[in-house]
Amino acid sequence: MAALSVLLAMPAFAQVPSKTVPEGPEFGARKIFLMLFLMLGPIKILVPFVGMTQDSDPVFRRTLARRAMLFSAAALALAGLLGRSMLENFEISLPVLALTGGVILFLVALQTVLQQSAGTANPPKPVSQLPDLKLAFTPLAFPTIVTPYGIAAVIVFATLAGNRYDAELTVGGIVLLILAVDWTAMLFAETILRFVGTALQVFAVVLGVTQVALGLQVILHGLAMIGVFAERRFRDYGPDGRHAGEPGVGI
What we know:
This protein is mostly helical. The chain has helices spanning 2-9, 29-40, 46-52, 58-89, 94-118, 137-145, 148-161, 165-187, 189-226. α2 (29-40) runs parallel beside α8 (165-187), α4 (58-89) packs antiparallel against α8 and α5 (94-118) packs antiparallel against α7. The protein starts with a helix and ends in a 25-residue tail after the last helix.
């Protein structure tokens, strides 16, 4: 909690100079944490992890969780470094990368929401053979923990950080904090699902809808950065569709 307080109190950082990447939005540590938590957080990990470790001893669960976290941290670090380098070498613009990540996030989140609404989400199933620690790499670390759209988000934030040490430290600290939360959730996955499983199902639906909306927002912002249309400041409009300065209408 102390680390989280420090991260959320850190100042916002803007994009790298315009000579390197196109103009982009400013992101504070709080917004980065919330966006990455939606993409890399523990909610989507609990049920698959319980299914992989059903009837396994606690030592195996801890070892599997620890290895999955190491693989995930290494994958995200490598993605951030290679992604920023590829943006420069292949001249891939940041808006195109953001648009790609938004499309992936939208499609995956929409599929998840549709499955949840149809009641086709699969509960954890017993494994047909003895669990193997190879599961730590795939499918646990990738693509369950390190999602494709999560990788895209890390690359975008790493690129926006540029070569500034404080901004890079902010992104890296937030990623490590979320992975620590994931690791703790896996250690107590069965207990969490036993006592708050129903509440987590409701929260998973809310999380899925939020991810769909976030994907659309990233797509629209990416299109605006490319110049397809003039961006409107959607944040100035409330849920009722009125602009922040417009008077309310009684019903």
